[in-house]
């Protein structure tokens, strides 16, 4: 049986070149991932400016952050997201239930600003009706009313729970930028390898 041997001439140079390619590939991946994070955040914020949700306070849109890119032996991760408590239920929909009280208080037109934000809580109105131009408050048929001299105004609806429909803004944004990111990354890595 013949003996076969394979030798690589210039093995050290080849190892150095492969290390350089690996580092260059990581740099490209990091750069493209960073660009994708910026594009993803911009796409999410576009949707939150009225395409999916009507902007009220601006809290959700300003909470969309880019996390630092993390590199592990498995690969790289670059996250974009929010820590706002209500972000998930807006994205996926679901039921919000009263927890420490019997009912949720849902502000009606008289208690909303022009942007749709509650001017105060039901507790504030009940405890200080005069601050809101009222002489008093009372409950009837699932509503909190405010009394004025010669009129009554519905202020809050009382409900044990409410169902919110899904209003996806993250997933469609990811789907929008994903093909562009993949194409740019493929092009960049192909240039390095050729």
Overview in brief:
It is built from five helices and ten strands.
Overview of the molecule:
This protein has 194 residues and is an alpha+beta fold. It folds into two domains: 11-91 and 165-193, no CATH class; 94-162, no CATH class. It is 42% helix and 21% strand. It has five helices and ten strands. The chain has helices spanning 11-51, 59-63, 87-92, 122-127, 170-193, and strands at 65-66, 70-72, 75-77, 80-81, 94-97, 104-107, 136-140, 143-147, 152-159, 161-164. The strands form four sheets. It has a four-stranded antiparallel sheet. Strands 1-4 form a two-stranded antiparallel ribbon. Strand 7 (136-140) and strand 8 form a beta hairpin. Helix 1 (11-51) runs antiparallel to helix 5. It is rod-shaped, with a radius of gyration of 28 Å. The two termini are 39 Å apart. 13% of the residues are buried.
């Amino acid at each position: 049986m013949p003996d076969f041997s394979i030798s690589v001439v210039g093995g050290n140079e080849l190892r150095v070149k492969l290390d350089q390619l690996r580092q260059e590939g990581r740099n490209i991946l990091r750069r493209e991932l960073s660009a994708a994070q910026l594009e993803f955040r911009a796409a999410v914020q576009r949707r939150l400016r009225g395409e999916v949700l009507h902007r009220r306070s601006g809290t959700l849109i300003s909470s969309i952050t880019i996390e630092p890119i993390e590199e592990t032996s498995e690969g790289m991760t670059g996250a974009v997201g929010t820590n706002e408590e209500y972000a998930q239920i807006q994205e996926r929909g679901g039921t919000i239930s009263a927890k420490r009280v019997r009912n949720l208080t849902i502000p009606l037109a008289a208690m909303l600003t022009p942007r749709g934000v509650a001017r105060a809580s039901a507790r504030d109105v009940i405890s200080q009706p005069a601050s809101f131009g009222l002489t008093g408050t009372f409950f009837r048929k699932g509503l909190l009313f405010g009394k004025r001299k010669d009129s009554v105004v519905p202020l809050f609806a009382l409900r044990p729970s409410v169902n919110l429909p899904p209003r996806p803004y993250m997933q469609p944004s990811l789907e929008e930028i994903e093909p562009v990111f993949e194409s740019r990354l493929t092009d960049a890595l192909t240039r390095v390898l050729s």
